[in-house]
Amino acid sequence: MKKFLAVVLILVLAMTAMTGCGDNKSDKTKDDSKAGEPELTVGFIYVGPVDDGGFTESHDKGRLAIEKEFGDRVKCLKIENVAETVEDVVSAGETLVDQGAQLIFSVSYGFMDGTEALAKEFPDVKFMHFSGTKSNNTNFGNYMGAMEQPRYLSGIVAGMKTETNKIGYVAAYPIPEVAIGINAFTLGVQSVNPDATVTVVMTNSWYDPALEKASAVSLLEQGCDVIAQHCDTAGPQIAAQEAGKWAIGYNSDTRDQAPKAFMTAPLWDNATFYTGRVQAVLDGTWEPGVYYGDMSDGYVTLAPLSDVAPEGAKAKIKEVEDKFLAGEPVFVGPIKKQDGTIAVPEGESLKTKDEIWAMDYLVEGVIGNYNIKND
Amino acid sequence: MVSFLCAAVIAGMPLLFATLGELITEKAGNLNLGVEGMMLMGASCGFIAGYITGNPIAAILAAIIAGGIGAAIYAFLTITLMSNQVVTGLALTIFGTGFASFVGKDYVGKVLPDTIKTFFMKVEIPGLSDIPVIGPMFFKQDIFAYGGYVIIILISIYLYKTRKGLNLRAVGENAASADASGINVTLYKYVHILIGGALCGLGGAYMSLVTVPVWQEGVTGGRGWIAVALVIFASWNPVKAFAGSLLFGGLSILGIRLQSMGIHISQYLVDMLPYLATVVVLILSTYKSRKEDQPPKDLGNAYFREER
User: Fold this and answer.
1) Cα-based distances in Å from A60 to A27, A215, A353
2) What average pLDDT is seen over chain A?
3) CATH class given for the domain over A148-265+303-367
4) Which of A183, A328, B56, B63 would bridge B201 by S-S if both were Cys, CB 3.0 to 4.6 A apart?
5) Residue B300 phi/psi, 5° resolution?
6) Where in chain B are the domains?
7) With contact defined as beta carbons under 8 Å apart, do B25 and B231 qualify?
8) Which residues, including other chains, have CB under 8 Å from residue B67's CB and lie 6 or more apart?
9) Is ipTM strictly over 0.90?
10) Residue B18: closest CA among B278, B269, B245
């Protein structure tokens, strides 16, 4: 009897935990079942929780924008905290298709192979994978934004602010997306401050507040006075604030969390992007393949400069931003790699997504290691 | 180098609290794998209490109570109902993780009030902080860390110099014999599992109150599991647990330190080191026959009086 009771209690514990994690997953579905059949069901596969204050939360703003814009016409489903393995992605996708999803966004680089498998398994369902390199010409596309544009602009802010000419950069993993960000940022820094260097630390994690903060602390102790980041929490900005230095965020406008350090942040405007894709499906104009949104689409943007940002930065940024809006590329030769060899010769530039995403090096002026086995 | 050691102490502090908590629990003969869950319960409740009241003492108390409640669930299941300790501990981790996300939902991205941030600022201890290396390493820390030092000393004295500590170790070694000699086994187990849970809650609270004073989900990032490994690494000795948490804390930030100095070795290799060290200690401990280095003999067994 006692054993039985124990088992029951353990089950209750586990169940409470699960409902605790997932409770608002179901309430949206309930709301919608009252209203008539939706025209389209959209599914989201997320790598983290929707309120992580970073990457997943910024994408979830897209989902919320869809719900707001289309109301009862479109139903949204989401699955959070999916592991980056083919099995987990496929099972999450199968669950969504089971519940009627006709358009599925898989929102993490590591979901690429799983999404490819799903696209084969369900040829009638449309899949869009964030930040990947794979697609087909029927039902599988990938999407990405030209984050290098706002990153370059944030580099201008950092380059004008730094006094020690040493800038720190807390990055997540050595993958092309991160390398492009570091390079664009560094070129932005050098455009206003040719003497400054950018020191990179990789945490090998997208989400670990304490580790990201510790990384920033070690950079600050090496003499860096501006900390930029390509990871998801405000940890580096808090470290900068505690040291009386400055920071550039990423993904979300986190100026409330480190008001004395936060200068600006490159941001994704996912509301614009996701509502646009849903509209395309409803109109029948949706296309597979590669979608690469930039500042002129409004998919990527730079947060308004705070009071801490250097004087004159606003005007300088406006000037460069106008060039980008007019279609000028970010990566214009001559660009040298860390070892001094030429990556982009004078007179040439990287224009298309494929050219930019083939980047497997860091530019001169970056201190840090990037030896990636690119597949 | 000194700044690295100093950062290692900060990185090791949550591990220290959690390890001491698990150590006390295991000394009572119970293996509680819910450390990560209890840490998160402590982290979330400590943060919320601190955010609402602006009072650091209230925050710490809330963390202690939250960790204690997590441990109380575990204690009731494993002692009174004699359920499987491993399964119950794992369930507690799942529960604690969900609980922290659930109660913390409205606080994501919120920042602690300044009263708490100033309370946990680094304070130098006059005299001691001037000692080279050791001074800045140990005596230029926050008040929470100093509390950690005190707890190590208290636990060491308690375990090895008091009658009650001896009784506790007897319960962990052989509950039946302890019972026969007149020790209230159930009471001892309950009290020490609760204390263990409270310490784990403090470990979590260190991360949400001191390390990064902004609430974010999953702040502990798996450190509860490292604490379980650390107890083995420390061979159930509180002083060794301190050394171990400094070592593991140091290893966890070694990679990023090397990178920021421009030295490059594989981050994956560095991330592996703490676990490699635990495996090595496990192997070594099977060769050593010293009794003090062995796990409590009754660890993991439910005690049922009539089953003797």
Assistant:
1) 16, 27, 24
2) 87
3) alpha beta
4) B63
5) 90, -10
6) 2-303
7) no
8) B21, B38, B39, B41, B42, B197, B198, B199, B200, B201, B202, B204
9) no
10) B245
Nearest CA in chain B to A174: B267
Higher confidence at residue A309 or residue B255? A309
In chain A, what are the domain boundaries?
Answer: 24-145+270-293, 148-265+303-367
Q: What angle do CA B103, B195, B223 make, to 5 degrees?
A: 60
Q: Which residues of chain B have a pLDDT value below 70? A: 288-289, 308
Q: Which residue has the tokens 């990938």?
A: A142
Give the architecture-level CATH label for domain A24-145+270-293. 3-Layer(aba) Sandwich (3.40)
Distance, CA of A78 to CA of A65 (rounded, Å)? 14
Using CB atoms, pick whichever of A51, A168, A204 lies closest to residue B271.
A204
Q: Do A9 and B268 touch (CB under 8 A)?
A: no
Chain B residues within an 8 Å CB radius of A23: 102
Q: Nearest residue of B to residue A200 by CA position?
A: B260
The model's confidence at residue A219, banded by pLDDT at 50, 70 and 90, is: very high
pLDDT at A23 exceeding the cut of 60: no
Q: List, for residues A251-261, the tens digit of each pLDDT value.
A: 878 888 899 99
**Torsion angle in degrees (nearest 10) through CA of A149, A151, A152, A155:** 160
Against a cut of 0.90, is the pTM above it? no
* Amino acid present at B105: K
Chain B residue numbers with beta carbons less than 8 Å from the beta carbon of A57 are 108
pLDDT in tens, A143-202: 988 999 999 999 999 999 999 999 999 998 888 889 999 999 999 999 999 999 999 998
Q: Does domain B2-303 have CATH number 1.10.3210?
A: no
Coil, strand or helix at B213? coil
Read off the pLDDT of residues B54-78 as tens digits, 9 standing for 90 and up: 999 999 999 999 999 999 999 999 9
